[in-house]
Design brief:
The chain is mainly alpha-helical. The chain has a single domain, classed as Flavinator of succinate dehydrogenase (DNA polymerase, domain 1, Orthogonal Bundle), CATH 1.10.150. It has helices spanning 5-17, 22-35, 41-51, 55-63, 73-84. The longest helix is centred in the N-terminal third of the chain and has 14 residues, at 22-35. The protein starts with a helix and ends with a helix. InterPro entries: SDH, SDH_sf. It comes from Salipiger marinus.
């Protein structure tokens, strides 16, 4: 059974807010609020896959300390621009 779109958005928003590292909570909360509702199903799939990554890695990618993997690079760049002003 597939998950209704609105439920998926709420679930991904909650996952964005409960990361474990406060900095990533803030960054991903801002991003989720700004972008999730306008994302396609494929974009949401990519974002959900990104949420599976380690917070330490995510923070380094978003902050520009290390390059994101190619599959996540456009998304990470959008997160950085949207949430960090970068």
């Amino acid at each position: 059974m597939t998950e209704p779109h609105e439920i998926r958005l709420k679930r991904l928003t909650m996952r964005s807010m409960r990361r474990g590292i406060k900095e990533m909570d803030i960054i991903l909360m801002r991003y989720a609020a700004a972008r999730l509702s306008e994302m396609s199903a494929a974009d949401l799939d990519r974002y959900e896959a990104l949420l599976e990554e380690n917070d330490q890695d995510l923070y380094q990618w978003v902050s520009g300390q290390s390059p994101a993997p190619e599959t996540f690079r456009p998304l990470v760049e959008d997160i950085s621009r949207t949430s960090c002003g970068g």
